[in-house]
Amino acid sequence: MSKDKNKTATPVRKNETLEAEIIDLTHEGMGVAKIEYYPIFIEGALVGETVEFKVIKTKKTFGFGKLLKVIEKSPDRVEIEDEIYAQTGTMPLQHLSYPAQLNFKKEQVEKVLSKIGNLSDIAVEEVIGMDDPFGYRNKAQVPVRKIDGRLTTGFFRKNSHDVIPIEDFKIQDPKIDQAILTVRDIMPKFHVKPYNEKAHTGWLRHIIVRRGYFSGELMVVLVTNTHDFHREEEIVSALTRALPEMVSLIQNINTEKTNVILGTESRVLFGQDSYKDDLLGFTFTISHQSFYQVNPVQTEKLYQTAVDFAGLSGNETVIDAYCGIGTLTLALSRQAKHVHGMEIVEPAIENAKLNAETNGVANVSFEVGPAENIITEWAKADKRADVIVVDPPRKGLAPEFIDAVLTMKPEKMVYVSCNPGTLARDLKILSESGYTVEKVQPVDMFPQTYHVETVVLMSRVEK
Ligand SMILES: C[S@@+](CC[C@H](N)C(=O)[O-])C[C@H]1O[C@@H](n2cnc3c(N)ncnc32)[C@H](O)[C@@H]1O
């Protein structure tokens, strides 16, 4: 079929203005309207609303529309504070009331478990939300560019590399926003050149600020395009004076033309390569390359759910795979005989060992490497675990990891997931191989966004 025929086959034409009712939301929170059989995705539109929109893109089986006017409003609609956040995509659900965001997330988990996981009879609990769903992020990574002749910080326009200046990010800890502005305003005094992505010139690419929610300690990382550091002493001294809470200042060097923010080389400019924070009564040391959950208030609820699901009595050997700096490992250790953490990032494992030692926890051990390799070795050596806890990145569990679990036959598995799609895929395999899903508890770690974290308890049915 020719391209033109495809185009004429759609019931809508590009640039026409139409009116329709929104019947659903996509997993990214876009409103779905149907013109005849043809779905059109419209950002900013909510279920139950009648909207006027302009068709901006047509594909063979679906199209995209730009919201022009809400003719009939949803009771769940809240007024947005600023269009800027819609342009950057940092708060894609900001127009949806918070209780409705939580419902949306619960439905997403239900939908995906049923569609991908074939688990339609599972009861998903109400999402554990926040009292104040703003200002929660403990980490910011902002690009630095020259805009109107000035060194500017902000965020990328959606689907582009243009930076939109932003000073108040709304979902970040306001003290982090403030620290970014402090760094931004000091840099021009020393003629620091912002990064120019197209020409791959300039010096300062990103400013990263991390802040311990409970400790108040700040870590600042300057990601630079070259190894040099002109006027280093003066800049370091200006930053330490302006940010008395800063305990760690790092230069991270990233000379590559890449979207990846951090480079592999770094050096400490002030303090050490770590800051501290507290979780569930433990104090953690966190290096700039280590993963640390971004929403500290919800992390405690997330970990507590995982610990409760593990239902430990004190006699169990537990594996905590993808353990990062050992946060969940230590939380589990209180009720286990022994917990063994596995993690691929070496500095994170160094942090984890130190964290166990400084918190006086002796019944844990840690191993660095891909969890799928380590656990496969365990299975081959006939080592056993009573409970396996996993908290993998978005891509979920490697097939070899699941194979090893099925060989080791733990009584329980607790799966902490930041991606319902890969969670459902993995649960399907496990539930077809001797495990049953007992509980599904979503936790809202990322209010105002469509992301949802889920904790699942599985137990072994085939003995
Ligand atoms: C979602 S984080 C969870 C970390 C930790 N449980 C926490 O809550 O802080 C996933 C972790 O898996 C690690 N990781 C990624 N791929 C891995 C692999 N193949 N094997 C082991 N760890 C991996 C990452 O470095 C990261 O620390």
UniProtKB/TrEMBL annotation:
Write down the InterPro entries for this protein, in alphabetical order: MeTrfase_TrmA_AS, MeTrfase_TrmA_CS, NA-bd_OB-fold, SAM-dependent_MTases_sf, TRAM_dom, U5_MeTrfase_fam
Q: Which UniProt keywords apply?
A: Methyltransferase, S-adenosyl-L-methionine, Transferase
Q: Which residues bind S-adenosyl-L-methionine?
A: 293, 322, 343, 391
Q: Name the CDD domains on file.
A: AdoMet_MTases
Under the heading Pfam families, the entry gives: TRAM, tRNA_U5-meth_tr
Q: Where is the TRAM domain?
A: 11-69
Source organism superkingdom:
Bacteria
The entry's active site is: 418, 418 (nucleophile)
> What family classification does the UniProt entry report for this protein?
Belongs to the class I-like SAM-binding methyltransferase superfamily. RNA M5U methyltransferase family.
Spell out the protein name for this chain.
23S rRNA (Uracil(1939)-C(5))-methyltransferase RlmD
Native source organism of the sequence: Alkalibacterium indicireducens
Q: Which gene encodes it?
A: rlmD
